[in-house]
Amino acid sequence: MAKKFFLVCAGILMLAGACTIGADRATAQVGQGDPVVGITEINMGSLAYLVAITADGNTYMRPGYASGVYPWEPVENVFGLEPVAVTDANLGDVKAIFR
Fold it and tell me: Domain limits of the chain?
């Protein structure tokens, strides 16, 4: 019985150690600059375009039919040129708006 108890305790200790080490190492690996957070393909008839959006809202586009030939061209910022206005609201305020 003592051996089983020891093995269960050792397993829990190893599991706790593995979770602690893994939680420290599991971070996003983003290089310098602005990471791409979304990419999609837009089909317009016979034309296809690849669109990429970065974390700060910049949008880049290039023709999708020629990979590697055409560079990514900046298009616009998703959030516009001005900062997005944000106001604090609680759930009651939001419900009042949509009633």
Answer: 34-82
